[in-house]
Amino acid sequence: MAVYLDHAATTPVRAEVIAAYAEAMAIVGNPASIHGPGQQARRLLEEARESVAATLGCDPIELVFTSGGTESINLAIKGLYWQQQRARRRPGVIAPHGEHHATLDTIEWLERHEGATAHWTPLDQLGRATLDATAEQYAEYGQEIAVATALWANNEVGTIQPVTGLAALAATASVPFHLDAVSAYGHLPIDLVALREASGSNGANGLVALSVSAHKIGGPVGIGALVVSRAAVVEPLQHGGGQQRGLRSGTQDVAAAVGFAVAATAMAEERVTEQARLGALRDRVIAGVHAAVPGAQLSGDPTDRLDSNVHFVFPGAQGDSMLFLLDLAGVAVSTGSACQAGVPEPSHVLLAMGRTEGDARSALRITLGRTTTDADVDAFLRALPTAYTHASRAGSADRDTALGARP
Amino acid sequence: MSGGVDSAVAAARAVDAGHEVVGVHLALSRMPGTLRTGSRGCCTIEDSMDAQRAANLIGIPYYVWDFSERFKLDVVDDFIAEYRAGRTPNPCMRCNEKIKFAALLEKAIDLGFDAVVTGHYATIVTTPEGDRELHRASAWAKDQSYVLGVLTTEQLAHSMFPLGATPSKAEVRAEAAERGFTVANKPDSHDICFIPDGDTKGWLGERVGTETGQVLDRDGAVVGSHEGAHAFTVGQRKGLHLGVPAPDGRPRFVLEVRPKDNTVVVGPKEALAIGEIAGSRYTWAGRAPAVGVAPIACDVQIRAHADPVPAALALVNGELVVHPETPLDGVAPGQTAVLYSGTRVLGQFTIDRTVSAVPVGADASSADSSA
Q1: CB distance B66–A397 less than 8 Å?
Q2: Size of interface A-B (CB pairs under 8 A)
Q3: Rounded CA separation B48/B26 (Å)
Q4: Averaged pLDDT for residues B144-152
């Protein structure tokens, strides 16, 4: 059995979720139908919506089920951007560097196809969005900004972002703000009512939208949620039956929603104890890596980081070589960065933090989850030194090849 | 594993032979194309998916290794530079020499592997003395030993070609179908993989630049013009668009490409016949033959699908000199001459200069070309 330390990619589905999902799947009825079976399905769906909303501190009516984090982020950013163009043209989008590709590529798409202008704000060396630089962007372009967005916690390096401050800057500038909580969900307390209040949102501006995904907390893949406050208006991306306040047409997946709800409830019950348990395991991994590879450098904030995230740069060893060797040794980790046809790109997050391209190719992300044990950590730390040594040997790719040398 | 049928079957046979096998797909472009955007070369996202699916079916792990930087430097840039210098390179050989059996093999050895297995049609024979020899595939129609001629003794020691003894490609496809590979009927790739639309001339034009130059006959008379010497290869007949007809009315062929002054020399077919080729950049595939100033007999092959021609091989002042028994047609500097003894590959050299076999007109030396 492989040691699985890539919980940020996806985490095992909880047994009770599988049972509830299968049970709900056996029930016939489209929740949009008027008849009895339809109403029964609707009841299950709305109960699920209430359960998930309870873990986010929002009204159930504000919660739109989507196919996952990527769709939620697309709907929030594009939907808010388009809505904001109605009264007058506002081409600006504000986001920190180092966002997830769902955000990066959505904003770049808006630039190419809608004439949007992206205002990327810098990260500091720990991967944290900088409030001063963001405030400057609002001061200079405030009237032109349609929408702002930010990660709650960086999915690669784990740094927790100053989200109250970022949301408050948007509220002050009367700009709707979307929070990407996909990686934070399950690892940080999320209370939208409190966060809106603390950041001065009036419901239409400031923090108005938040994205989460079920499979990051032990729910099924294929369902996520976008919270859209009652007063915010979002232009839908897909059109049809007008389900979910017209924001997301398409027959609603009752079974997946039920599975999501069971996962969310279980997560909320154990989050505080899990956070402490994972935080201790995380610190063991960090200390173990430092001991095994003295040259390794921890990325992100050493303390203000996700309880589940360990991210290191191993100078001189390519991340994908290490991943490969650890995988052959039965330990599944990630390089943390996006792949293009299976090839890890140099991490744009590390580049934004001021690391070199070489460093950005030499990263490994180890992420812990509900099923992670001390034995998993031991197995990883046992396999690491050999993987590092061999990858360093292969990493010096610039040298002349002895095998290909000409006489 | 390229995503094609040959490497998939080669991987499966290596597993059957009892080896511990890991599938590796080479990412050779930072921006891999996709068939949906009209690309038809290899290295597309779809090719990577095909390769992964084959690895799944064989039951081996699969990874993509990124050699895009090395590939650009050692193969693509080299290809452009060679054309700029008026030579005709073979990028597949360069890839074998610098990437597949060098960068990839070295990384594999560093990571703990023993050998690279590919779907090339060629055979490795181990002699009773323990030497590794490279030989033609048993089915000569599919033989690819020419493009492997660059392999050295050490590279051969770490290479395996499980398809070498297969009678035909049809047999490989049948085996792939039997194994349930989705790529069993995937068409072969023929083009240069980094020129996705197959338009080598246009691709080179963008990189080498187009500039109007003169087409000369062997006496130096201007007989036409062209839009860039790089677009011509020695032996080419079509697309010359000569304004001045030949005095004897017979077709003319490209005899020489001179990149320095951007001119192309044309002449009659007889002038293409080459009686001597020579080059100082050579390698031996295995134990070196006992060759010196006194010539030895061999066969020489100057293109992947050309017939081998019996020849005399000598090593004179550090330069390999080959005299074919019958003149060779359309040889250009930059091409690789692979030397055979029977089915065995002796080695190869890059052709630096050629000497015409049949002097035409009064000035025979103008058919010579040197790099």
Answers
A1: no
A2: 69
A3: 9
A4: 95
Dihedral sign computed on CA atoms, order A365, A371, A374, A376: negative
Higher pLDDT, B66 or B1: B1
Contact in structure between B340 and B146 (CB atoms under 8 Å): no
CA torsion, points B232, B234, B235, B239, in degrees to nearest 10?
Answer: 10
* Binary contact (B61, A343; C-beta < 8 A): no
Identify all chain B residues contacting A321, using CB atoms and an 8 Å cutoff.
Answer: 107, 111
The region of weakest confidence among A188-197, A234-243, B62-71 is B62-71
Average pLDDT over residues B227-241: 82
Banded model confidence at residue A325, pLDDT cuts 50, 70, 90: very high
Contacts 24+ apart (CB under 8 A), B359-362: B360/B218, B360/B267, B360/B268, B360/B270, B360/B271, B361/B218, B361/B219
Longest dimension (CA), chain A: 83
What's the pTM value of the predicted model, to 2 decimals? Answer: 0.86
End-to-end CA distance of chain B: 36
What pLDDT digit, counting tens, does each position of B166-194 carry? 988 899 999 999 999 988 988 877 678 88
Confidence of residue B83 (pLDDT cuts 50, 70, 90): confident
* Contact across the interface for B66 and A320, Cβ inside 8 Å: yes
Min Cα–Cα distance to chain B from A309, Å: 24
ipTM entry = 0.83
Cβ of B282 and A407 within 8 Å? yes
**Looking at chain A, which residue has its C-alpha nearest residue B150?**
A404
Task: Report d(CA B47, CA B34) in Å as an integer.
Answer: 9
Q: What local confidence, expressed as pLDDT, does residue B206 receive? A: 85
The string of pLDDT tens digits covering residues A35-59 is: 999 999 999 999 999 999 999 999 9
Q: Among A189, A177, A120, A126, which residue's Cα sits nearest to residue A154?
A: A126
Q: What is the pLDDT of residues A200-212, one digit of tens each?
A: 999 899 999 999 9
Among the listed residues A283, A338, A350, the one whose alpha carbon sits nearest the alpha carbon of residue A314: A350
Catalytic site includes residue A339? yes
Residue B289: DSSP 8-state: P
Quickly list DSSP for B118-145: ---SEEEEE-TTS-EEEEE-SSGGG--G
Give percent of chain A above pLDDT 90: 92
Within 8 A of A329 by CB-CB distance, chain B residues are none
What is the distance between the alpha carbons of residues A181 and A198, in angstroms, rounded to a whole number?
A: 17
Q: Among A343, A394, A406, select the one facing B66 at the smallest CB separation.
A: A343
Q: What H or E segment, with its residue span, contains residue B314?
A: strand B309-316
For the stretch A254-309, pLDDT in tens is 999 999 999 999 999 999 999 999 999 999 999 999 999 999 999 999 999 999 99
Question: Residue B237 in 3-state DSSP?
Answer: coil
Burial environment of residue A302 by CB neighbours within 10 A (0 to 12, 13 to 18, 19 or more): exposed
Residues of A near B (Cβ–Cβ under 8 Å) read 320-321, 324-325, 327-328, 340-344, 390-391, 393-394, 397, 401-404, 406-407
Nearest to B154 among A343, A403, A406 (CB): A403
Q: Which of B42, B43, B193, B298 is catalytic?
A: B193
- Closest Cβ opposite residue B111 in set A321, A403, A404: A321
Task: Determine whether the interchain pair A341/B45 forms a contact, defined as Cβ–Cβ distance below 8 Å.
Answer: yes
Q: What is the pLDDT of residues A362-378, one digit of tens each?
A: 999 999 999 999 999 99
* Spatial contact of B56 and B62, defined as CB atoms under 8 Å apart: yes
Q: How far is A391 from chain B (nearest CA, A)?
A: 7
